[in-house]
Each structure stands twice: as C-alpha cells, then as structure tokens.
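This part of the workshop introduces the protein records we will be handling. An example says more than a description, so a record of this kind follows:
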Amino acid sequence: MEASKVIPWLINVRDACEPHNDPGIMPTPPASFSPKKRKRDNDDENGDGYDELIPKSGSNTGGHGQQVPIAIRPLSQEYQQLQYQQLQYQQLQSVSQQPLAPLPLPLSELQASTSRSSSKPGSETSSRSKSRITIPVRSGTLLFLAKPVKFVALSEDRFAQIPASAHSLLSEIKRIIVYQSAFIPAMARDIIKRELPDGKGWPDHWFFRSDDAQGTPELARAEMQFKALHEIVATAGRFWGQRRNKLAWNCLAHCPLLQLATRSFSRGGVVCEPVMGEGIASHWLPEMARKPDEVASGKMVDFVLALDLQNPRPRDQVLENAVVRVVGCQTYESQSINQTLYDPLVFSPIGVSIANATYMEGTLQLGIWTAAWHRRMRDLGYTDQLITLPLILCNGFDWSLYFACDRGHMIEIVGPISLGSTARMETLYPLFAVLVELCKWVEGTLRDWWITQLGGDPAAG
C-alpha cells in the first residue's frame, strides 16, 4: 500500500480513538445484567437518581457517532440495597427450583435394615410390625385380643381360683391383710408407742420377733423403717390436700415406699425400677383376634419389681449368663427378656408390675401390659402355662393387688385384694409388709421359674 494512503488513514483512526485515550474520562464499564433502573424524580434534590447511569442522547459522543459515557457518580445507598434484594430473590428462585433431598429412613426401618438374621423365635417380629395398625384401647378391647384378658372378682376359695405358683404368696398376704398377724418387727414397738398418739393401743399380734434379731442393729433398722414410713404418710397427706399430680405421687410417695421394700428384703437380688414414660415394644403389642394386622396400643406401667441381673449376686451369675445368651440370640429389635426394650430391663425379668391410675385407666393399662408379656414369652418359645404374675394398682392413698393367671386360651386377672394405704401408719405398715413379701416372691418363686425355663436346676442355685 502506498504511503500517501496509509498515513491519512492512521490519522483518522487516531482522531476517532482520541476520546477513549483521554485520562480524564473513565472507561466504559462492562455491561450490567441488573434490571433497568427507575428514572429520577424531579424532586430528587440530592442528585442520586439512577438516570445518570444512562448517557443523554446527543451528548458526549465521540467520533463516528460513538457515544461516550459520562463520569459515573458513586451508587446511592438505596440503589445498593435494591441490588442486594434482587440478588437474594434470584438465589431463592434458583433454590426453590432444585429437587428436595430424600428424607432419612425412620429409626425403626434403619435398625431393621441392619439387624442380624436369626432362626430363633422373634426373628420375624420386625417385618410383622411394619404393616400393622395400632388402635386405641377402649373399655371392652381386652376381651377382643387374640389372647383375651378378663378381670374376674376374687372368690371365697382363693386357692382354687389362683394357680399354685402364687399360693405361698397368697398365704402370706392373707396372714397380713385378713388375720393382721405378725407384720411389724417387735423392735419397732417402743418407737411406735413413743411417736404415735394411739401407738400404745396397737395389738400385740401385729408384732413379730425376728429369728435373726441382733439387738442394736435390728433396733436401728426398725427405727429407720418407722421414720421412712412416717415421712411417706406425711407426704401423702400433703399431696392429698394440695391435689398433686400423678408424677408427684410417683416420685415422692410411691417410689420411696417401693425402694424401702427392696432394701428391707435381706436377701437382695430384687430391684424397683421406675419406668414412667416408656412404652411396650411395638412388635409385642397384643394382636386383635379378628384383625391380626391390628394391635392394641399400650404404654409402660409406672414401676416394676424385677430380678436384679444388671448387678447380679454371685448366686445369680449362672442365671444372668443364661438370660444374656437367650437375649443375644434374638434379632436387634427383639433383644430383651421382657416386653419392653427399656435398657435397665433388657436382662432383668419383671416379676411385679405397678400402675398408678384410676380403676378404669389402670385396669386397661395392666391388661395390655400383661397381654404383651404373654406375647413376648410366646415369641421366646414358652408355650406352656406361664407363671402367675402379681399386679398392683394404686390411686392416691390406696393400693390393690391382682393376680394375672394364664388359662391357656385367655388371661384372667383376679382381684382386687386391698393391701392398705399410705393415709395412716396403721394402714401403711401392712401395705409395706406385703411389698416385702412380693420382693421375696420375685427372688424365690419367679427366679426358680426362670431357671427352669432356661434349662437349669433351681435346687443348684
């Protein structure tokens, strides 16, 4: 190309680019993706309107009609806030269009998916319980269970009505409650006369002298029991006047009484376990007779007296090992010797169950609870006649005893037997004596029954 043509062309290019090379003019900013800005109102006296971002037509143009932006002033605070809100809105839109993350598996399904397979009874409990419907318990529900539960009044011939496994216990209860004979240690007589206004009039046949009485230690023990029982009477009296709720009665009146009974049993091996708020394992809820896919809802009782195999005595070590082996053979969700998965009761067979409720509520609660225990025993393979279990219903001051008797085709709950009350010392002492006898029954008859069921010899222990 000739120089005469190149030089004029370079001059024209330099003139066209001259405005862009001016250091006094800011470079053109990159294109913005923000929405159009509103036009400044006439009363915008601060000059912070957004029209300054848009060049005026016909002004500040460069060569060849190119438009040159004017100097941009700092963005106003209002505009910055608008941009921030717009960004948030866009982010929310993008999040709402994303698919939701899958929900985690329920704990029961997660446990079932990781449970170990087993050929022992109870290995199919998880698959059976998933498809079942839980129905509320109403009056009459107990009679329509797969193994019905029926409450029966105590007859005159109690020993013919109640199975032999409870005869020794029934004899002791009759001695204490009916004949009112020998249920207070003789060592407590002096403190009773001294501390109670009518203590001097208590009959002599209420007191007994222990064969292993050892003077001062036995006296100290009798005085300790008296003071503890006297405090329970005072607490119960205050609660009755103050209309305290069930939890208060359980914590400050019923639990101390039951704990005192287990401590007063010299041989040990029995524990009182508070179980308020826990529940029956879902796969052992009792089935309905005509609808096997439906089960009756239920909850735990308030207390149980159980064999203490969490902290076994040396003489219970063999029994504890046998229970651990049986429980260990079950699937993960069935690893308990009882009808509940509550940790303190996994290895400790329940003997006596106590419910704090009104008669209607309490009988339903005890009925479902007992039916669930029978179902648990069936899943463990114990299909013969099961041992008769004592049940206690307490409401306010008053305590009553029932016996859950296995009749094969149904469960009869026989009772009630009034045990006494926490209202006065003369009614609390016989109640306390019966609770001690119940602890003896758990440590004796119930323990021997479990040893037999697990293939052992009770005489060897």
Remarks:
- The mean pLDDT is 80.
- Residues 3-92 form one domain.
- The chain is about 40% helix and 15% strand.
